[in-house]
């Protein structure tokens, strides 16, 4: 990998230069240009968090939680997300480095392939899943208005459209997310209203009067909605390095939480209510039945398609792209094309079936069991081991102290994974302390880890 011969000088330039960088000009070097202010950054996260998987997560808690419990579970999950993003994004925000560089101080140059792979696989799966959903929405618009019904055609075309948008990098992402946010919010409000209007009578009694659970199922539900974003908690530095300096930890936490909460709340509750009333988890089928007015149905379906684009290009393209850039030394644009092609191989048509809602729940719980320990290790490494001070020269020196693999990080990850699977309902929560504590003790007292402390 090519890197700046003087990372500290590059960092200084990056923090002072606020000019607009060229589209697709992305690298793993310390960020030279910050292109997002507070409003732009909030809107980017808002537009990028419209995960259709949230519908499915809402569907999966039907029969377990009542409406109040489901609402609180979503809200708690979102504020935990906000805190986690601010904590783990601090290194990227301060030093302008991406996740794959940040992870070197804990895992080593070769060891970063572990967190990189764990982050990349869920992103590519969600990429394919959400692309199929978006293509299905476009196909329904086409079939209704023009009589042309060919889902495979729209899936392929939709995927290549997203690949074309992805190669523009964060410059394109910024404008796509910012411009699309108003349409997304208006559409979500309307979709929520139409759902209540259509199913309100049959929902009111069952949703509010059932006892539900305030125990493990409730906390498990907070983790489900949190788990959708647990991937982003890991690589948040990829985004925070684009945010202009001047925002403290408290403000950043608020920006993250308040950008994620509206979309997650609306979409989770829509999925919950419609699934309770109809037993259907596929959002395309849901809104085909929920909306009687054709123009409004078209608007809703176009929203679903557009939302997949805004979510995929931010959350499901950038992380695996940086992983490929680091592992295989690919250029940014080449890596985004490869990621887009890999999404074809996720068989998303199987993931959208009604019976797949439970499977997606298991999928989120499973990858969260791996993401939680890695998150804990990165936070412990930055705050307790490094004391929020990183040596960029060493992070970019392949023959320096971070060469190879840090066995302490690998062992701590495995300990966290075991703890997570022992309490799979709250796998992400359960993994944090075991993984973080194990990593801290090994770094302090196990000699093979001492090289990584330098």
TrEMBL record:
Stretches that traverse the bilayer: 41-62, 68-93, 114-133, 145-167, 179-196, 216-234, 255-275, 295-318, 330-347, 367-385, 405-422, 428-446
Main location class: membrane
Pfam families, A to Z: Transp_cyt_pur (PF02133)
Keyword Methyltransferase: no
Domain of life: Bacteria
Keyword check for Lipid metabolism: no
Record localization: Membrane
Keywords, in A-Z order: Membrane, Transmembrane, Transmembrane helix
InterPro entries to which the protein is assigned, alphabetical: Pur-cyt_permease, Uracil/uridine/allantoin_perm
Membrane topology classification: Multi-pass membrane protein
Family: Belongs to the purine-cytosine permease (2.A.39) family.
PANTHER family named in the record: NCS1 FAMILY PURINE/PYRIMIDINE TRANSPORTER, PURINE-URACIL PERMEASE NCS1
Annotated protein name in UniProt: Transporter
Organism: Salinicola endophyticus
């Amino acid at each position: 990998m090519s890197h700046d011969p003087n990372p500290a000088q590059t960092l200084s330039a990056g923090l002072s230069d606020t000019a607009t960088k060229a589209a697709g000009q992305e690298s793993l070097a310390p960020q030279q240009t910050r292109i997002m202010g507070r409003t732009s950054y909030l809107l980017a996260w808002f537009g990028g968090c419209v995960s259709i998987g949230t519908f499915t997560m809402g569907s999966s808690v039907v029969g377990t939680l009542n409406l109040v419990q489901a609402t609180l579970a979503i809200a708690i999950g979102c504020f935990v997300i906000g805190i986690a993003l601010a904590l783990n994004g601090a290194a990227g925000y301060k030093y302008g480095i991406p996740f794959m560089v940040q992870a070197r101080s804990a895992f080593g140059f070769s060891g970063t392939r572990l967190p990189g792979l764990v982050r990349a696989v869920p992103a590519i799966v969600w990429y394919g899943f959400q692309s199929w959903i978006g293509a299905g929405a476009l196909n329904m618009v086409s079939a209704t208005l023009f009589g042309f019904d060919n889902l495979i055609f729209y899936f392929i075309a939709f995927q290549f459209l997203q690949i074309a948008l992805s190669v523009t990098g964060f410059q394109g992402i910024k404008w796509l997310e910012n411009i699309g946010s108003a349409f997304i919010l208006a559409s979500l409000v309307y979709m929520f209203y139409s759902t209540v209007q259509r199913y309100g009578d049959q929902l009111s009694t069952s949703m509010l009067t059932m006892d539900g659970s305030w125990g493990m199922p409730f906390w498990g539900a907070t983790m489900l909605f949190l788990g959708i974003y647990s991937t982003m908690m890991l690589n948040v530095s990829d985004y925070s390095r684009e945010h202009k300096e001047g925002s403290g930890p408290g403000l950043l936490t608020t920006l993250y939480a308040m950008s994620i909460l509206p979309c997650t709340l609306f979409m989770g509750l829509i999925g919950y209510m419609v699934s309770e009333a109809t037993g259907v988890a596929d959002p395309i089928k849901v809104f085909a039945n929920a909306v009687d007015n054709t123009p409004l149905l078209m608007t809703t379906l176009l929203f679903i398609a557009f939302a997949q684009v805004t979510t995929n290009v931010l959350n499901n393209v950038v992380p695996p792209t940086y992983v490929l850039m680091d592992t295989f030394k690919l250029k940014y644009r080449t890596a985004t094309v490869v990621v887009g092609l890999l999404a074809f191989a996720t068989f998303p048509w199987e993931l959208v079936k009604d019976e797949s809602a439970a499977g997606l729940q298991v999928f989120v719980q499973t990858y969260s069991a791996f993401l939680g320990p890695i998150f804990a290790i990165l936070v412990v490494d930055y705050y307790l081991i490094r004391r929020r001070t990183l040596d960029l020269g060493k992070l970019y020196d392949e023959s320096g102290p971070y060469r190879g693999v840090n066995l302490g990080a690998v062992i701590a990850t495995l300990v966290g994974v075991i703890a997570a699977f022992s309490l799979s309902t709250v796998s992400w929560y359960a993994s944090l302390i075991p993984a973080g504590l194990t990593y801290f003790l090994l770094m302090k007292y196990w000699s093979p880890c001492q090289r990584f402390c330098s």
